[in-house]
Amino acid sequence: MAPADLFVVCKNPDCGAEVSPYVTECPYCGTRLRKRAPKLDKGLQRVSHTRRMPTPPLGRLRRGEIPGIRADRAPYATWLLVIATCGVWVATRAGYVSIYRFIAIYPLGSQWWHVFTTPFAYWDPFESFGSGVYQFATLFAVAVFGWLIERRHGSMAVIALFMIGASGGAYIALMAHLNDSALGGNGGALALVCAWAVPDMLARRAKQSYDGDLLGAGVIAIALLAMPIVRPGEASAVAGGFGVVWGYVAGLALARRDAT
After folding, report:
1. pTM, to two decimals
2. pLDDT digits 0-9 by tens, 224-254
């Protein structure tokens, strides 16, 4: 299109505005400029009829989803950990089974499998206030950060973080004879907290924005690390320390996997 065709001048001497050559009336004064608008250039028609790129097909929508947006997955692994802990407490509280069937006590001997059950065992919170605080703090951390980890990385990540952090820490503490017994999942809870906080810690170090609450996570982690002071015969400081290390290492691996 020639430069002269970019606009026309309104015929009204009192207006004289420059308007588009594709309008029939002046938008400023209403003066009739032509009977009908000129035809568009063929090149413009070809552009308007270009073939649209096919959109990738989406899978069949599940209940609670809308097109283009996936619904949050249910935190099944987190529920499983919390329900298992509550189930052990109900069974021992009601007298169906002795709590010593779950506790890992030095030396393990043939009862080595107790390292996998002791993360779910706590002394009766109604008989000891300190045990109730320990159990509540641990389950609260597992419920909150397990759910956040599961939304981000899936169910298997939650199970691996908790079980390795809790059972691995209890095993190390007993094998080194640093504790006569280790109860509760403070190591697993700390692993979940630290693994969740790693991406935000990396973003903060790189002076980038992040959405998480590192202060809140730090307060919960400190509370869990202090549980051996509240319950010295129940919570293990070694298990808690191992959970911190394991959660940090696993969090780095998960963050690197997400970055690739």
Report:
1. 0.70
2. 999 988 888 788 899 999 999 999 999 999 9
Tokens for 90, please give them.
């109900």
Q: What angle do CA 211, 186, 245 make, to 5 degrees?
A: 65
Find all residues with CB under 8 Å of 89, minimum gap 6, and list them: 122, 124, 125, 135
Of 199, 187, 212, the closest CA to residue 251 belongs to 199
Quick: pLDDT tens for 151-180.
989 999 999 999 999 999 999 988 887 777
Rounded to whole angstroms, the Cα distance separating 112 from 101 reads: 12
Determine which helix (DSSP H) or strand (DSSP E) holds 224, and give its type and residue range: helix 214-225
Task: Render pLDDT for 99-124 as a digit per residue (tens, 0 to 9).
Answer: 888 888 888 778 888 999 999 998 86
Per-domain residue ranges for the chain?
7-36, 76-259
What is each CA distance from 187 to 82, 83, 135, 178, 233, in whole angstroms? 15, 18, 13, 15, 15
CA distance 83 to 139: 10
CATH number assigned to the domain covering 76-259: 1.20.1540.10
99, exposed or middle or buried, with CB in 10 Å at 0-12, 13-18, 19+?
Answer: middle
> Are 188 and 142 contacting, i.e. CB atoms less than 8 angstroms apart?
yes
